[in-house]
Design brief:
It contains 4 helices and no strands. By secondary structure, it is an all-alpha fold. The longest helix has 24 residues.
Length: 99
């Protein structure tokens, strides 16, 4: 996994905040049929509870628990990043529509 303390860098959060905005915009373009996605990403973005799936994938599937606190922190931050994408995508979706 990662052998560094990701929380020591505040720019990490800022960078992932801007990246989540770009990903949410990409998802909206894909939902409107204007931008292609790989099959894997198209399926992943339709999963319910996607942030939880991401956490379980990183912490258990990729054995982040072996890295101790750093692995847990990384998995939590990545799942939070995924949650920000979910929220921003919802925010960009017109009210009353559930694409």
């Amino acid at each position: 996994m990662i052998a560094m303390d990701v929380m020591e860098d505040t720019p990490w959060v800022a960078r992932h905040n801007s990246c989540s905005t770009l990903e949410a915009e990409q998802i909206r373009l894909n939902q409107r049929g204007r931008a292609p996605f790989s099959l894997w990403k198209a399926l992943f973005y339709r999963l319910p509870a996607r942030p939880l799936v991401k956490f379980l994938l990183l912490y258990l599937g990729k054995r982040g628990f072996l890295d101790g606190r750093a692995g847990f922190t990384y998995a939590v931050l990545q799942s939070f990043h995924e949650y920000m994408i979910v929220l921003k995508t919802r925010e960009m979706t017109p009210r009353g529509r559930t694409e």
